[in-house]
Amino acid sequence: MNLKNDLLLRAAKGESVERTPVWLMRQAGRILPEYRAVRESVSGFIELAQTPELAAEVTIQPVDILGVDAAIIFSDILVIPEAMGLPYEMVEKRGPWFPKTVQSESDLKKLRIADGVDDLSYVIEAIKITKKALNGRVPLIGFAGAPWTIFAYMIEGSGSKTFSKARAMLYTQPDFSHKLLQMITESTINYLKAQIEAGANLVQIFDSWAGILPPDHYEEFSLRYIQQICDAIQEVPKTVFAKGAFFARKEMGQLNCETIGLDWNMGIAESRAMIGPHKTLQGNLDPAALYGSPKEVEAATKRMMDQFRGSRHIANLGHGVYPDIDPEKVKVFIETVKNYQ
Predict the structure, then answer these.
(1) What is the pLDDT of residues 76-113, one digit of tens each?
(2) Which among 88, 141, 170, 304 would be 20 to 30 A from 9, CA to CA?
(3) Which alpha helices (H) appear in 233-340, and where do they start and end?
(4) Cα–Cα distance between 230 and 225 in angstroms, integer?
């Protein structure tokens, strides 16, 4: 199917574009009253993510309502541990929680390498429904969590400010850690390939907890597995977004991917110098800038665009949009990018 708007894919590949494409992390979600209406029709987040027709509906909402240049499939990074045999729950106002965690070789034996098609059929079905409904209007982004971030949840059992249990495991049981990370990596490759087969035009790897590791551990326990995924996925462009990993930007520039996502703490000129000219950079407006007045949002967006001017760029925030931000301010951000000269 030919895309009517392929700006995102051209920008990712470094091809010429008429204007900078724009989308937002967490665009399908809590900022939109239309999303909340769908969410309230089911028992909660997990049922919504596992109901392909509804997941497709909320995936498309930002395209219709906000005018973004891409849809990103509505799902969660923690579907991978569940597909491997470690189920999780989504606790209201607390986030993900795993009733059981992985602590030993015996726990490892209870896990399997996930099959992207069978074990995650509801995501694959949602992608197929979304593709049909989008009818080529914009590209569809598939995604997965980076192995280190998934590992952190599987060991810790929930979100954490420090992930001290997961980090301790890297020091006390490095061989065990590498075994689990390898299983997650192979599961993730299977999953992303299934997403691409179902119609995803680009995939993004989210390393949400990259920034809590020291640089040597990040290289050993995260970047090498991200590299494996990037090397295995050749079918579509790939984006790597490692929040907080400012210390690894030079190494990220050597990954076999097209785009590097920057968080809002990463200086744009410095990042370009470290990563080099041959990657597209994505980002990186501070999500909190969208709390400003419409004029302030427009000014902050223009300042960001000025810094990226003349280089390969996909406009986005430096992290996911916050749930209490006014959708009208989000529209100001998107329209400012679209009208930027």
Answers:
(1) 999 999 999 999 999 988 899 999 999 999 999 999 99
(2) 304
(3) 249-252, 268-275, 294-308, 327-339
(4) 9
Supply 1's token pair: 């199917």
211-237: pLDDT as tens digits:
999 999 999 999 999 999 999 999 999
Residue 299 CA to residue 222 CA, distance in Å, equals 36
95-97 and 89-91 beta bridge pairing: antiparallel
pLDDT for residue 159 is more than 80:
yes
The 10 Å CB-count burial string (b at 16+, else e) for 3-14 is bebbbbbbbbeb
**From CA 177, how far away is CA 237, in angstroms rounded?**
29
pLDDT given for residue 41 in this prediction: 97
Contacts made by residues 248-252, CB under 8 angstroms, sequence distance 24+: 248/210, 248/215, 248/218, 248/219, 248/223, 249/274, 249/275, 250/274, 250/275, 251/219, 251/223, 252/223
**Residues 71 and 130: beta-carbon distance below 8 Å:** yes
Nearest CA to 287 among 311, 304, 308, 269?
A: 304
pTM for the structure as a whole: 0.98
Dihedral sign (CA 256, 257, 258, 263): negative
Residues annotated as part of the active site:
26, 30, 39, 76, 153
pLDDT of residue 26: 97
pLDDT at 182 over 80: yes
What φ, ψ does residue 66 adopt, rounded to 5°?
-100, -25
Q: Name the token pair of 122.
A: 């509801």
Residue 325: CA count within 13 A, CB half-sphere: 26
For the chain, the straight-line distance linking the first and the last C-alpha, in angstroms and rounded, comes to: 30
Closest CA to 275 of 247, 243, 307, 244: 247
Sign of the torsion formed by the C-alpha atoms of 162, 166, 170 and 171: positive
